[in-house]
Amino acid sequence: MIIGEFFNETLHRPLINLLVGLYNTIGFQDLGVAIILLTVLVRLLLFPIFQKSLRHQKQLKELQPKMKELQEKYKKDPKKQTTEVMALYKTAGVNPFSGMILLVVQLPILIALYRIFLRGLSPIPILDLYSFVDVPAGINATLFGLINLNERSILMVVAAAVAQYVQGKITLAAQSQNSASSMDRVARSMVLVGPLMTVVIFFGLPAAVPLYWFVSSLVSVVQQMIVNKESLSQHAVGSIHKKDN
Question: Using N-to-C axis directions, what is the helix angle for 13-24 and 31-45, rounded to 10°?
Fold first, then answer.
């Protein structure tokens, strides 16, 4: 009970108020526009976390050849293998558990947003609104007046799946195309499996949920491209330094 109240007051209620505030002001009283703005705003606030997560994935990827060497070298001594792998992580400045920590930080926010979009704003949750947030006379639960966000929309489900596919391809492009490691095989399979799961999961849900996923995936694509560009720049600088030396 206490945990539920804490979650409601620290995440769920503030996000609802932010959504209604956006709807009343720069959202042009269009729930779809308000959801897009809220999703982008949240992802911008979480950008340092997502950026660090993507960099972390790249660092682990770069350590794979050395890890494989250690696994082969100490395959008959698991204890020594673990010690050497952890030493490699320490030398490279990589925390193998940081990806899980970042997921834990992001998950409550994602759950709160999912609950809001799944429930919708009809009827308007007046008790959830702060005193300084105006209660709208009604909610225009559409996207640009074209898609009813309280109902299913095949178009939004397909758009969310396509956006996730593009995100997967962009992420995969940042990895070695010639690698045959188990991690790479899983990543390649998820490029197709992810969008299929999106269709299955979101097919029967209100269109507000796949709209959120669609926008979130597009923001992820932009973030991945930024990290990829930074990686290429760092690689170029490193190559120049090697030539100078």
Answer: 130
